[in-house]
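Why Protein kinase domain-containing protein? Reviewers of the renewal asked for a concrete example.
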Amino acid sequence: MISFKEFEDITNKFSEKQLHGESIFGAVYEGTRVDGEEMIVIKLKEHRRPSETQFNLVVNGLRFEHKNILQLKGYCDETVEAASKRLLCYELLQNGSLDRKIFGDQSLTQHPWEERYRIIQDICKVLQYLHEECKDVHMGITAGNIWLDNDMLPKVGCCGLSRIFAADPTQIYNTKGIPCTGAH
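Here is what the prediction returned.
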């Protein structure tokens, strides 16, 4: 477990400058620990909060053994100034997120087609692993949740978080993490 104070230090008190973006699970920050290790921090949304016991059971189950899944480094579950603070900390990969490669300055078109195709295949293999072996559904798969290491190996983040937010595992959610009703 990592203290809320350390998460504040990693993200420079959750500054806008450190904010990478928003996911259906919460605000995503980039930051650096005191020892120089770079991290991704997710400040989980407040709605649909599980009990402390359920949260701890789920967080301890978020450690997947797959080369294309971003590894959980730690978490926080503290009450600070009468408010519950739940945060997750993941490894930060050097080539950033896939959305920045698609829409940013460093376009993937500079990379050979074979490499781009391998990235797509690796992402598909992760989703297959999650669905078939883990019986888990990734509720927030976006280019912003896929990170690339130095070798352009993609790693999918936020795996298993649907267990925290889904009170009913059969419930379907929209891209904002809100339950949908009826056929869409």
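The first strand starts at residue 19 and ends at 23. This is the kind of structural detail the renewal will allow us to pursue systematically.
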